[in-house]
Design goal:
The protein is an alpha/beta fold. The protein contains eleven helices and twelve strands. The structure holds nicotinamide-adenine-dinucleotide (NAD).
């Protein structure tokens, strides 16, 4: 790694476009070229730091917000942004980097696939976003095709990373990645119903007037229309929800089936409501991906509802959907298979069947 002392010491964005063009000519796109730019850009050391590296594939609403969230958190020392729209990736990297003096130092830069070498995590957000009124499944084939074109490029340079899939329909995209690459099943999983479970917890917390941290609740199955809530696993302040609501909850006279159905509907339509209001969702999903990255980089062995290849859990096979998995440094460590009621198992099968039906209609 040879770096010239001629690296400009002043922040180049003050110098305008011509200086940036000269810098790009002097330090052509490449693994080290771009990295040294980010450091020298701020007059930092030219010596590469040893730390955690996260690559984000796709720098639209979701990818850029994840990058920003991770930068604030400071858990990665290096964040690489890749997008087919190189200008967008570069602009997002510069914008976030310029704020890093106010948080933990992170080297954020835009680059190419070869820059992804030694990534600990690759976050996949490429693709088309859901438009108002459009279901996630409508997006399926278009996003599968995009994924099939980008995955060989990234896996060539980051074969050992843990891949966290966010692109929708996330269960289908996760399945397509597993079927079309050599990556192992513990190495690839989707953010799945992490977000839906968070929405459920915050909705229930609001319902019982407690902190969401005192509410344990999960959404299983598809990240989408056929998701299901295993109510029998929901606990509040360490108690089964039914007991808490019967004896303690101020709202006990409203905790009947109708109220649960309305909470379930709220959770299932939460994303669509945000899209209808502001055109996209990205803050909550970015926070859930931040949490996943934390569990991987800090090897926390946390239980999360992520979308992974299913092997005979509840008699379901050959489909990706969300169930509880233990997540640590290598990705998925093992599944957790809690007992469900017959009714809940039937709903989970319905979700798996709906996903399989979509898969059967796609060219993967
Ligand atoms: N799983 C979840 O909970 C969740 C939540 C929100 C959004 N999403 C999904 O995340 C994805 C991204 O959403 P968004 O709002 O950021 O969309 P967006 O359109 O803002 O960004 C997508 C980015 O992907 C890039 N891209 C497209 N094709 C590419 C290619 N071949 N190579 C490299 N980059 C490419 C585009 O240039 C764009 O910058 C969508 O599929 C969306 O549905 C998932």
């Amino acid at each position: 790694m040879v770096f010239s002392n001629a690296v400009p010491a002043i922040p180049l964005f003050f110098a305008g476009g011509e200086a940036l063009r000269q810098r790009d000519a002097a330090f052509p796109a490449g693994r080290y070229g771009r990295t040294v730019f980010s450091y020298s850009y701020w007059g930092r050391s030219n010596i590469m730091k040893k730390g955690k590296k996260i690559t984000i594939l796709g720098t639209g609403n979701v990818g850029a917000t994840i990058a920003y969230t991770l930068a604030i958190d400071g858990m990665a020392s290096e964040i690489l942004l890749i997008d087919i729209n190189e200008k967008k990736a570069k602009g997002e990297a510069m914008d976030i980097l310029q704020g890093t003096p106010f948080c933990a130092p992170t080297n954020i830069y835009a680059g190419n696939y070869e820059d992804a070498v030694q990534s600990d995590i690759v976050i996949v957000t490429v693709g088309l976003a859901r438009k108002p009124g459009q279901s996630r499944i409508d997006l399926a084939q278009a996003n599968v095709d995009i994924i099939k074109s980008v995955m060989p490029q990234i896996t060539k340079f980051a074969p050992d990373a843990v891949y966290v899939v966010v692109s929708n329909p996330v269960d289908i995209i996760t399945y397509a990645i597993l079927k079309t690459t050599q990556l192992s099943e513990c190495q690839v999983f989707g953010s799945g119903t992490m977000l839906d479970s968070a929405r459920l917890r915050s909705r229930l917390a609001e319902h019982v007037g407690l902190n969401p941290k005192n509410v344990h609740a999960y959404v299983f199955g598809e990240h989408g229309d056929t998701s299901m809530i295993p109510w029998s696993l929901t606990t509040i302040a360490g108690m089964e929800m039914s007991k808490y609501c019967a004896y303690i909850c101020d709202e006990h006279n409203r905790c009947g089936k109708e109220e649960l159905k309305s909470i379930e509907d709220d959770v299932r339509t939460a994303g669509a409501k945000v899209i209808a209001l502001k055109g996209a969702t990205f803050y909550a999903v970015a926070l859930s991906v931040r949490r996943i990255c934390e569990c991987i980089l800090r090897d926390t062995d946390s239980v999360m509802t992520v979308s992974a290849m299913i092997h005979n859990q509840y008699g379901i096979n050959d489909v990706c959907l969300s169930l509880p998995f233990v997540v640590g440094a290598q990705g998925l460590r093992r599944p957790i298979i809690p007992p469900l009621t017959q009714e809940e198992e039937a709903l989970l099968h319905k979700s798996a069947d709906a996903l399989k039906e979509v898969i059967s209609q796609l060219k993967i």
